[in-house]
Amino acid sequence: VHLCLDNEKDVYYRRAKEVGFRARSAFKLIQLDQQFRLLEGVKRAVDLCAAPGSWSQVLSRRLQAHKDKTAKIVAVDLQPMAPIQGVIQIQGDITNQDTATEIIKHFDGEKADIVISDGAPDASILLFVYVCVCVCVILLLLLSIVENKKGGTFIAKIFRGRDIGLLYEKLQIFFTEIVVAKPKSSRNSSIEAFVVCRDYSPPRDYVPTMAPILFNEKSHMDNDQSNGLYRYTIQFVACGDQSSYDADSSYPLQYEHDDNLGANEDNENENDDADEFMNDDEFLHLFVRLFYVLCFKYKDDIGGDNQ
Ligand code: SAM
């Protein structure tokens, strides 16, 4: 029996607090990285829709931005963010050409190895409009950054709606490998997933632009399949190994040190709590047994009251 916890404050929320991440979303990127080794060898990264900054924190720790001077991380959001070591922050709209220009300026002529986006559409924007315009503009921003650079990676949050095939179709023009992944820390109840696109290889004559390619006829490619059917099948991967926490379950409190997360040293003392004489489950179990014993012992009295 597990104690029910507030849905918002699940195990990933608590782990994020323990290891100093600003949001539980950090674990989504960590699990995507564990599954696909996305951050291996990455030196330059762009984090779109980055606030409050937990993905940038993961990037900063993985790229060792505090000591590796060759690492460059640029984070963009409409909202201001508290500083993160080794992360250049831009407050701006990612769909704006000026923001794209500013990001590119920070790379001093170099191209990004990876662009990640955890953007969530405004609730007032129709899902279809978001998928069609916002995500594709994010994609185009990526293209302007990694122009001519083969092998770049793009990860973006998507919502698997009816028309998501439209997005897959466009992505397939630019990447040789596309997978849709659902990290274990992403709640089952959410239609959110992440499209993981690897090996950026745009058509030879492709000119990066912020203008949506979606409604262009035969946009930039010889792709006779773009005739409105959008029936692309993309491999779906559930990631985070089976022993990792499930975002929709509740767990008794426990503390463990995880070196990979760069946990604060202060948390080490909290391991002492794991040795307490009885955990929540055992206590609840004992309580229920005691209750039944008392009910049995005083059943006559209880019955008497009812008469
Ligand atoms: N990945 C972040 C983290 O781990 O802390 C969480 C991102 S949060 C789910 C989505 C963010 O997208 C919000 O901070 C919001 O301000 C930002 N956003 C939405 N539309 C945007 C846009 N057009 N330009 C820049 N940021 C945007």
UniProtKB/TrEMBL annotation:
- Outline the extent of the Ribosomal RNA methyltransferase FtsJ domain: 21-200
Per the UniProt record, the source organism is Reticulomyxa filosa
Q: Which residues of the full protein are shown?
A: 35 to 341 of 383
Annotated transmembrane regions? 125-146
Q: Which UniProt keywords apply?
A: Cytoplasm, Membrane, Methyltransferase, rRNA processing, S-adenosyl-L-methionine, Transferase, Transmembrane, Transmembrane helix
Q: Give the lineage.
A: Eukaryota, Sar, Rhizaria, Retaria, Foraminifera
Which cellular component terms (GO) are annotated to the entry?
Answer: cytoplasm
Give the highest taxon in the source lineage: Eukaryota
A Gene Ontology annotation in the biological process aspect, one of them, is: rRNA processing
Q: Name one GO molecular function term.
A: tRNA methyltransferase activity
Q: What is this protein called?
A: Ribosomal RNA methyltransferase FtsJ domain-containing protein
